[in-house]
Amino acid sequence: MRVAVVGAGPAGLTAAYLLKISGHQPMVFEAEEWVGGRTRTIRLDTGHHLDSGAGWLAGFYRETLGLLEAVGMRDALVPIDLRSCAFLSEGGKLVRVPTGPVSSLSFSLLGPKDRLKILLWGAGLVMRQPRGDLGVDLRFDTTSAEVHILKSVGRSAAQVVFEPLVSALYSGLRELSAASVRSFARALLFTRFYSLSDGMDSLWLRLAEEVEVQTDSPVRRIAAPANGGVELVLDSGSARRFDGCVVAAPITRVRDVIDGVDLPPWVDSVRYAPHVRAYAVRSGSTQRAEIHPVGGEEDVVTVSRGSGGWLWGALPQGYSAALVGAAGKLALDLLDEPDEKVGRLLWERAAAVDPDLFGIDRCRLVRVVKWPEAVPVFAPGHLSNLASWKQAPPVVFAGDWTRAPCIEGAVRSGIEAAKVFGRA
Ligand SMILES: Cc1cc2nc3c(=O)[nH]c(=O)nc-3n(C[C@H](O)[C@H](O)[C@H](O)COP(=O)(O)OP(=O)(O)OC[C@H]3O[C@@H](n4cnc5c(N)ncnc54)[C@H](O)[C@@H]3O)c2cc1C
Questions:
Q1: Which end of the chain is more exposed for a tag (fewer CB within 10 A), N or C?
Q2: What is the DSSP pairing of strand 86-90 with strand 25-29?
Q3: Which ligand 1 atom sits nearest the alpha carbon of residue 257?
Q4: What is the pLDDT along the chain (424 residues), one digit of tens a residue?
Q5: Burial class of residue 318 (count of CB atoms within 10 Å of its CB; 0-12, 13-18, 19+)
Q6: Mutate to test the pocket of ligand 1, among 34, 38, 205, 213 (most ligand atoms within 8 A of CB)
Q7: Pocket around ligand 1: residues whose beta carbon is below 6 Å from it?
């Protein structure tokens, strides 16, 4: 079959690669000039690179690691340390986030009762949450994560630990379903983290070599006429016919251009959290730290800083970098502001979270990255809706919003979309 794939992110390229292996003829259409979607790597003139979106893969990303293996890129995995450099900031005072049960027992921001509650919650996840990495327990899906966490660990632990760490993943506890937070927390408990030596987009650049990809080609209409097949209308106005289509772009970007396809009504309410980041590099060194402020769900500002080695990409020896990120309302407000203003404002806010952050003025390079659709919000009910949604050709939907809000979710959705078309 001739199958069009809309979007050259992890979901679309995984689907296209597997469709080709199954004997189909996939053709990928990508709106931007680059492939990789939200795993975009920006290669900088200082000779290093910045992972402008996703920064890590986790050890439980079974399918993503399998793809790396399949294309001979397993050696590109670089182990990174996200745990021992994680801090919470309260009024500018940094407290290390516990990395295991023993260190959590002496965690100074919480009293002994609250520490015990967190330990018990973690133990409950290990015992009862479905294992199968990213396994979902739908019994928790109609409850908001806020209600569940308050009930399980109490108010102070929810505010001091859970809200800052979860908000840094771009939505507050109130917006998420308890099932989605439990599934992620369980999977992350004992995992290791990795980056890719040539940038997070390098796997997708590699897959794009195997299939036909047309970049700079936003799809403006996707129609399934009653007489069969799929018609795609491109930005240029030209129309192309295919036997089937995998739509692997964020649903908010394509919802309004789909015609003649039955989509369940809940799809209209799917939304994404925005994220805005400023990245700056200077010569010299600074201690490695990942800092999350305690409180402030609306305008969480996270600070990652370090020297040499790895920091959201490769960083040359002799240089330090910092990445300041905003989520929630602050990110939304900054999306349309000029980059220079965004950089300064984020740095100002970050100084309150991290008093040791170096100034932005004498940095050699400053980059601002804006993601209007950073991560899909898995609101209460979303996972249950997905579980009862049966997809069939000719138009099939993929993307992180259909599986889990991460690279592995996107890859798994691409695998499932390709399976729907079977072998040619
Ligand atoms: C700042 C940030 C940090 C993140 N950190 C992590 C992390 O550390 N680890 C992790 O696992 N995940 C992380 N993620 C999430 C991860 O990047 C996404 O889950 C993943 O990229 C989703 O893949 P996808 O293929 O579903 O969508 P995308 O990556 O968004 O790809 C979709 C593609 O569709 C294209 N497109 C859109 N509209 C059209 C159209 N009309 N026509 C043609 N093409 C179109 C887009 O340009 C894009 O290239 C992060 C995301 C962001 C933004």
A1: C
A2: unpaired
A3: 41
A4: 999 999 999 999 999 999 999 999 999 999 999 999 999 999 997 789 999 999 999 999 999 999 999 999 999 999 999 888 999 998 889 999 988 777 888 898 999 999 999 999 999 999 999 987 899 999 999 999 999 999 999 999 999 989 888 888 788 899 999 999 999 999 998 899 999 999 999 999 999 999 999 999 999 999 999 899 999 999 889 999 999 999 999 999 999 999 999 899 999 999 999 999 999 999 999 999 999 999 755 688 999 999 988 899 999 889 999 999 999 899 999 999 999 999 999 999 999 899 999 999 999 999 999 999 999 999 999 999 999 999 999 999 999 999 999 999 999 999 999 999 999 9
A5: exposed
A6: 38
A7: 6-12, 29-32, 37-39, 53-56, 218-219, 248-250, 253-254, 275, 371, 374-375, 399-400, 405-407, 410
Task: Give the DSSP per-residue string, 334-390.
Answer: HTTS-HHHHHHHHHHHHHHH-TTPPPSTT-SEEEEEEEEEEEE---TTHHHHHHT--
Q: Indicate which atom in ligand 1 lies nearest the CA of residue 414.
A: 25
